[in-house]
Design brief:
By secondary structure, this protein is an alpha/beta fold. It has two domains: 204 residues, Glycogen Phosphorylase B (Rossmann fold), CATH 3.40.50; 162 residues, Rossmann fold. The chain is built from 17 helices and 13 strands. A seven-stranded parallel sheet has the order 3-2-1-4-5-6-7, sandwiched between helices. Strands 10-9-8-11-12-13 form a six-stranded parallel sheet, with helices on both faces. Strand 12, helix 14 and strand 13 form a beta-alpha-beta unit. The longest helix is centred in the N-terminal third of the chain and has 17 residues.
């Protein structure tokens, strides 16, 4: 069986697909990852075959704000509306669909597995008449990507591909939607008729290891890891928040590692407190296995990886679905939420002390961890994809 995986050029959207692709490879299947050419090196890092598809429209949409010292909340909201109405279901989705269709016609495919933000893989599979599945790499997908927002632009693409209309976007999750969290985490997403839950598995890049600077940590103190993900640090407006996190952790009786994004560590780490190590990047899944608390932007990959390690969180959401994810984590008692606009070192320190000092946060995170470990493995997901592909072929 040949499976094509499709993703936007975002590393945290790719990572869960890698685990599925590696499982399919171990079962003897042929796999390839379809993404914009600019993302080739990222796919290559995981040792997976790459096929160019679509274009990187995300950078063009975000880039005008990269150097802004402050981005008002209303401007962030407008950007997110554009993302959902013009970006995800826009011309980039159709370009991806056409390129993926070309790969299907040239080399064949039995199924397409897409990350939930990518609409091009869904359109290509529909046009080719083969099975398709989505993987919930983002949280609260039915709220942030509500089908009624996507139906009209997707129907315009369906018409160009010779497909009948789908006025309620019901075909988006027609075959299988794989959720990598327990059913109780997101009741709305669980309502998708084709949803099945599977056990999340972290993946490492070849050569990943923790940096030597972690060898000198005081092991009598809790370890706090902080990261605002891969997207937020691209914006200059995030620098003041990162500084607040660095300074705030300096007020907490802990050892801390703060990942600040490419090229930022030298500047942001210059005046860091002695208990805080500032780095550009770190192998996050490895570090989470050893940590006691995650300070996060509430990106779904980070939240899922933290809960897989049984870690509570301090959540500081800013863009995309982060607010929805942070709210749910707070509702479940897994995190203390802070406001991005009013963040300062004192608030960071107080929240970290609260979560580290209250064992109920850790106990609830461990409960979710146990629920995750009780889910079917990704091997079961590949079996389900095999059955879908066989059914579509009949």
């Amino acid at each position: 069986m040949r499976i094509l995986f499709t993703t936007l050029p975002v590393e945290t959207h790719l990572r869960p697909l890698v685990a599925v692709a590696e499982t399919a490879l171990a079962r003897g299947h042929d796999v390839a990852v379809c993404a914009p050419e600019s993302f080739r090196d990222e796919v290559d890092h995981y040792g997976l075959p790459f096929l160019p598809a679509g274009k990187d429209w995300i950078t063009g949409m975000l880039a005008p704000l990269f150097d802004s010292e402050r981005i008002p909340p209303e401007q962030v909201d407008a950007l997110m509306r554009r993302l959902v109405s013009e970006g995800l279901p826009g011309d980039g989705a159709l370009a991806t669909a056409r390129d993926v269709l070309g790969h299907i016609r040239e080399g064949g495919a039995d199924a397409v597995v897409r990350e939930a933000y990518d609409m091009g893989g869904y359109l290509a599979a529909e046009a080719a008449g083969i099975a398709h599945a989505s993987v919930g790499v983002v949280g609260r997908v039915t709220e942030f990507l509500a089908p009624d927002r996507l139906a009209q632009p997707l129907d315009e693409h369906r018409a160009q591909l010779g497909l009948p209309p789908d006025p309620r976007a019901e075909r988006l999750y027609a075959h299988l939607h794989a959720h990598l969290m327990p059913p109780g985490y997101d009741p709305a997403e669980t309502a998708i008729p084709t949803l099945r839950c599977y056990r999340h598995r972290t993946v490492d890049r070849p050569g990943d290891r923790l940096p030597p600077l972690l060898g000198g940590l005081d092991h009598s103190l809790p370890l706090v890891y902080a990261s605002l993900g891969t997207v937020a640090p691209l914006f200059r407006a995030a620098d003041t928040r990162l500084r607040s996190i660095v300074d705030g952790l300096g007020e907490v009786a802990c050892e801390a590692v703060v990942a600040v994004g490419r090229g930022r560590a030298q500047d942001l780490g210059r005046s860091a407190p002695p208990n805080v190590r500032v780095v550009d990047f770190v192998a996050q899944p490895l570090l989470l296995d050893t940590a006691d608390l995650l300070v996060t932007h509430a990106g779904f990959t980070s939240v899922r990886e933290a809960l897989r390690a049984g870690l509570p969180m301090v959540a500081i959401p800013w863009i995309a679905e982060n607010h929805l994810v942070a709210t749910r984590c707070e509702e479940l008692g897994l995190a203390r939420r802070l406001d991005w606009e009013h963040l300062d070192a004192g608030r960071v320190a107080d929240a970290c002390r609260e979560v580290l000092g209250d064992p109920s946060f850790r106990a609830r995170a461990r409960g979710v961890q146990r629920d995750m470990l009780a889910l079917p493995s990704l091997d079961t997901l590949v079996t389900d994809i095999e059955e879908l592909a066989a059914g579509a072929a009949r």
